[in-house]
Specification:
globular, 3 domains, Neurolysin, domain 3, 26 helices, mainly alpha, 7 strands, Glutathione S-transferase Yfyf (Class Pi), Chain A, domain 2
């Protein structure tokens, strides 16, 4: 778990950019990630050079004589962290975004090699003993915490076990990395095609229909990529099309991932038991805020108790909507949920999601998010022009703070074959103060604008963009550390979704939307009345959303809480679906096979809800009439984001809130719409 844990973070028209350009253009001497346009051989040389530099640093550490000091021990140790993380980040990124399958195959192999190097360090007795012998009496608090945290991770890696056990653990960790990579690759590479009659696109946005013309066979061919699939789930009137596309989407990595995930579960279980834990879930929780595996089960039940009454109320509203066309219906299939939710928002809240899409063309949304982040975090952004990359659509940006560069990020925002099919922020380089700028990338799959198509985004797309940009700013602002090992998002991993989910709330601010949400044809600002209806309608379904996320949390935990041979993946998925969600699962989808978080997050999908609790608690500290007013924005930056991993996330929370988080803010958030007096729509749920 030591250094390899960092790899799991792989955690969402011409336009004038004057609003985010720095008043004075700055340059960065640090080359971009693709500056030398590497082919496979050059890529592998970069990776091998980094791993060799990491090994030289460890050799230097071990060769040191005399008392262990910061200079002769922690400095070379952190250099190894820096080099090995850089190798792992680059390999993991290329595995997910490079357009050539052969290159991706080589990236997978290099990711395994980088992970093996990290595992070897985590199992090295002599390195552990050297760190344990450090005299930290005169060190600053961040350095003391760094060493303390690393010693815990060494022990969790099994450094104190006998030689035979450590040898076995190294093999298992290498195997786990390879299996997780294959699990992810099977999802990314598993695109499916669904044939549809033109009439089945009824209800979908006109720009969607315009992009999907019939082929020579008279059929329309839809992929399981997000820009094709998600609008179908929400808008297609054809029940058959929604059912077929959902089925294809959920089965895109089946049956390939059956053997892969089964093997990964066995590998992880053996790692956990070799280290004295009863299950992978218990082991995986040991260095997180939640601390114990059984605490995950308790949290899931707490959330279930909090969300179920509201989820039932919302379900009854959805069922009543379905009964308009299916009299006597008693159940709702899971694939029907998005469409029925949209129908309820339209009929009960006088809001049609398509009505806001014209105000969300991709380029303007991107600009708006940059402007919002600039205002909130007191930074500016400058695009680097003519920068080579693995795909022509990738953009490169510098983050400027205090008149100087403080980071760089890349935007790879649109789908293509073989690319990671979800949305994520991934670290590219750790920030090391005075030595290396932090770098990160957003890998998303939003509609691509063209000369004739502005790439209109759904409300959920915009929310996802805000979410991922929250991750990105956390990595950049937290990347101004002395040590690579505490840079960026390196605290307990069940805190990482809190800043990103908190930034999602900005999409609901009329103040924020007024800056960028303009009609792509007329330039008209989004009407305040439409924003009010959008916010009221978006508040509907929150109880069901929490219940759904809780269901995924339970699947994640139940998959890893016991012996793998006792786990039937289909049964776990179906049972938890029925236990925590009121919707009936679509049969034979084997949806676990495409549930990518069972690889990276493994048993810790609860992180999203755990951090939603924290995020809503954080958001309460801001002035909701003016999100940029008062001291909350800069205090949030200084107290929560800038420390990076230099202290426990529990302390980050307490330092900002003045107490530990509690579920009260989430409960208010879930019930916000139903708690408002005087709304005619409220009676519908009673």
């Amino acid at each position: 778990m030591l250094l390899a844990a960092r790899l799991a973070i792989f955690l969402c028209l011409p336009f004038v950019l004057a609003a985010v350009l720095s008043a004075q253009k700055v340059t960065v001497s640090q080359p971009t990630i693709w500056a030398n346009k590497p082919d496979v051989a050059a890529f592998e040389k970069i990776e091998n050079d980094r791993l060799a530099a990491g090994q030289r640093a460890i050799d230097t550490l071990l060769a040191a004589k005399g008392p262990r000091t910061i200079q002769n021990t922690l400095v070379p140790f952190d250099e190894a962290v820096h080099q090995n993380n850089s190798a792992g980040y680059f390999a993991g990124l290329m595995e997910q975004v490079h357009p050539d399958v052969t290159f991706r195959d080589h990236a997978t192999a290099m990711l395994t090699k980088a992970s093996a190097a990290q595992t070897a360090i985590s199992l090295n007795h002599d390195v552990y003993n050297a760190l344990a012998a450090l005299d930290l009496s005169h060190a600053d608090a961040a350095t003391r915490y760094y060493v303390q945290r690393q010693l815990l991770e060494f022990r969790l890696a099994g450094v104190d076990k006998d030689d035979a056990t450590r040898t076995r653990l190294k093999k298992l960790n290498d195997q786990s990395t390879e299996e997780q990579s294959m699990f992810d690759r099977n999802i990314s590479d598993g695109q499916k095609i669904v044939e549809a009659d033109p009439s089945e696109l009824d209800g979908l946005p006109q720009d969607y229909i315009d992009r999907h013309k019939p082929g020579a066979d008279g059929k329309i061919h839809l992929t399981t990529d997000y820009p094709d699939a998600l609008p179908v789930f929400t808008f297609a009137k054809s029940d058959s099309l929604r059912r077929r596309v959902t089925f294809a989407f959920n089965t895109r990595a089946y049956p390939k991932n059956l053997d892969v995930l089964t093997s990964l579960m066995k590998t992880r279980y053996e790692i956990a038991t070799l280290l004295g834990y009863s299950s992978w879930a218990d082991y995986n929780a040991a260095d997180k805020m939640i601390a114990k595996g059984h605490n995950i089960a308790g949290f899931i039940e707490q959330v279930d108790d909090a969300s179920r009454p509201l989820a039932k109320r919302e379900f009854e509203m959805l069922l009543a909507e379905k009964q308009k066309t299916t009299p006597g219906a008693k159940e709702i299939w899971d694939y029907e949920r998005p469409y029925l939710s949209e129908s309820v928002r339209r009929t009960q809240y006088d809001f049609d999601s398509q009505s806001v899409r014209p105000y969300f063309p991709f380029m303007e949304v991107k600009q708006g998010i940059l402007d919002t982040a600039a205002d909130l975090f007191h930074v500016s952004f400058q695009q680097e022009q003519n920068v080579p990359s693995w795909d022509p659509a990738v953009e490169t940006w510098i983050v400027i703070g205090g008149g100087k560069p403080i980071g760089r990020f890349y935007l790879d925002m649109h789908p293509r074959p073989g690319k990671y099919s979800h949305a994520e922020m991934a670290p590219v380089l750790d920030g090391i103060l005075g030595k290396q700028l932090p770098e990160a990338i957003l890998v998303c799959n939003f509609p691509a604008p063209t000369a004739t198509d502005p790439g209109l985004m759904d409300y959920g797309d915009v929310q996802t963009f805000f979410h991922e940009f929250g991750h990105l700013m956390h990595h950049i602002l937290g990347g101004q550390q002395q040590w690579a090992g505490i840079s960026g998002i390196s605290m307990e991993s069940d805190f990482v979704e809190a800043p990103s989910q908190m930034l999602e709330e900005w999409i609901r601010s009329p103040q924020v939307l007024a800056k960028f949400a303009r009609h792509y044809k007329t330039g008209e600002p989004i009407p305040a009345e439409l924003v009010a209806r959008m916010n009221r309608a978006s508040a509907f379904g929150r109880g069901s959303w929490v219940a759904r996320q809780n269901c995924y949390s339970a699947i994640s935990y139940d998959t890893y809480k016991t012996k793998p041979e006792d786990v039937n993946l289909d049964k776990v998925t179906d049972d938890d679906g029925r236990r925590y969600s009121l919707f009936t699962p679509q049969p034979d989808t084997h949806s676990w096979a495409s549930f990518g978080h069972l690889g990276g997050y493994s048993s810790a999908y609860y992180t999203y809800l755990w951090d939603k609790v924290i995020a809503e608690d954080f958001f309460l500290q801001f002035d909701h009439q003016n999100l940029l007013a008062g001291d909350a924005p800069m205090r949030y930056r200084r107290v929560v984001l800038e420390p990076g991993g230099s202290m426990s996330a529990n302390d980050l929370v307490k330092n900002f809130l003045g107490r530990a988080q509690n579920i009260t803010a989430l409960q208010h958030w879930m019930a916000e719409e139903f708690e408002k007096p005087g709304q005619g729509s409220q009676s519908a749920g009673k």
